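Re: export button greyed out
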Amino acid sequence: MRRIEDHPILGKSERGRKVTLFFDGQLIEALEGEPVATALMAAGHRVLRYTHQHLEPRGIFCALGRCTDCMMIVDGQPNVRTCITPVRDGMTVETQRGQGQRRDQQPLRGGMD
Amino acid sequence: MKEDDLIICRCEEITLGEIKEAVKLGMTTMNEIKRFTRAGMGLCQGKTCRHLVANIVCCETKQPPSALVPSTYRPPIRPVSLGILSKRLSDDDPKERLP
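Workaround output, generated via the alternate export path:
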């Protein structure tokens, strides 16, 4: 998938330098400063997390930082809204399952049961 | 896909059918629906589903939106980690303060 380079309203995009991030252990090329979710979508990854009740896949929905469908584990921190989190070189992002957990923590909650 | 299987609250995965059922069982205000179904109690705190739920309740109870008792609004408006809330402002690094 390609990025929009010249938007009819927003104009030409100012591109950051090429950097790399780690997505579930895989190297992804991204542009510094663009949202993490954008970088993943451009690299063809649309599933960002799985829901806590039915473990259904979720991807970008509102892309405004409101809906929380793009929550991922970023540098070990769960529940980060990746649609409004800028890419930094060498950052680690992981697919979040359920409500996520920090590396030093037990799972917060597995479901409603 | 049946209409009742539509997901209304994306965070808590609550369907249209579950909200209609709650209304049938007597939940007619936003707070009652929220506490009965958990719609609006997830990560986004109802930012996405609040208006949908209000419209469904109005349709099911045949009342105008102006007659619907709204849900309680409480801060914080944005997701904030407990770590930030527990930090004393005097210890705070100004660079880490919320905008």
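The first strand of chain A starts at residue 6 and ends at 7. The button fix ships in the next patch.
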